[in-house]
Specification:
Structural class: alpha/beta
CATH class of the largest domain: Alpha Beta
Shape: globular
CATH topology of the largest domain: Aminopeptidase
Number of helices: 8
Radius of gyration: 18 Å
Number of domains: 2
CATH architecture of the largest domain: 3-Layer(aba) Sandwich
Strand order of the largest sheet: 2-1-3-6-4-5
Largest sheet: 6 strands, mixed
CATH superfamily of the largest domain: Zn-dependent exopeptidases
Number of strands: 10
Low-confidence stretches: none
Mean pLDDT: 91
Order of helices and strands: EHEHEEHEHEHHEHEEHE
């Protein structure tokens, strides 16, 4: 099965940010990275990205790529906004499909909506229809997920959290798995991060030590992953296409007392 994940917008898209400056794309791409890592644990699944960290990919190019690759499902990931630039009370999760209500897209959207509302506790704004380009111009079934409001201060705290981003990715992937009856690999491998800058917080001979560190990091709001390589249990905290993002995480972790390293895989 071929899946295209679309982190909406880009680093330089005008206006797509919270009143205090969080760029929407930061959230969207983080969820897409988590989702790709999770999907790699399923058999016969290939994941493509519609977006790029290097430039704002035009909508037509995104849908053209999806169509030329003949992917089976298109999932566009977003954070919502309301009003003219200030803080508002609008809050919650909503999922969109095209106006013709394609059957498979509707079923998937309902599963995504149900999962995300249950796992986040945010208001259920429902499954809706819209004439969005990525839903209209894709030849395959597509859904667009709005995962909380950047213009709501409480929602924004969640949108900034790595734990919340992981939770959103898990809800989306579970819905895709359920909808298409994906089969898990018998021996899942660690997330593929080829070509990415990896942030590592520790490497241990004893798995318990790695698990203990992962638990500590998780309680601090991070999303660690423990995997075995070259006789060591390694604790990975992040993987980024841009080195500056990895550097930022390393600096934050070191300020909190963690011994971290960064390397290009």
């Amino acid at each position: 099965m071929k899946i295209m994940l679309d982190a909406g917008h880009g680093y330089n898209t005008p206006g797509k940010r919270s009143p205090d400056g969080m760029i929407e794309y930061e959230f969207n791409r983080a969820v897409a990275l988590h989702a790709r890592s999770l999907l790699q644990n399923y058999q016969n699944v290939t994941v493509y990205f519609a977006h790029s960290d290097n430039r704002d990919v035009p909508l037509q190019e995104r849908t053209n790529n999806a169509n030329s690759l003949n992917v089976d499902i298109y999932v566009s990931i977003h954070a919502n906004a309301f009003g003219s630039g200030g803080w508002t009370s609008a809050s919650g999760i909503e999922t969109y499909i095209y106006t013709s209500k394609p059957r498979i897209a509707l079923q998937l959207a309902q599963k995504i909506q149900r999962n995300l509302v249950a796992e986040t506790g945010l208001p259920n704004r429902g499954v809706k229809t819209a004439d969005f380009h990525v839903l209209r111009e894709t030849k395959m079934d597509g859904v667009l997920v709005e995962c909380g409001f950047m213009t709501n201060q409480n929602d924004l705290k969640l949108l900034r959290s790595e734990e919340y981003r992981r939770t959103i990715a898990e809800g989306i992937v579970k819905a895709v798995s359920d909808q298409f009856n994906l089969k898990r690999k018998s021996n899942p491998s660690p997330p593929s991060t080829s070509g990415l800058y990896k942030v590592q917080a520790g490497a241990f001979k004893a798995k318990k030590n790695a698990d203990d560190l992962a638990t500590k990091l998780r309680s601090a709001g991070y999303t660690p992953y423990v995997y075995q390589e070259n006789g060591y249990y390694k604790v990975q905290v992040g993987a980024f296409e841009r080195k500056q993002n990895a550097d930022s995480l390393v600096s934050k972790l070191r300020n909190e007392g963690y011994e971290t390293v960064i390397f290009l895989d």
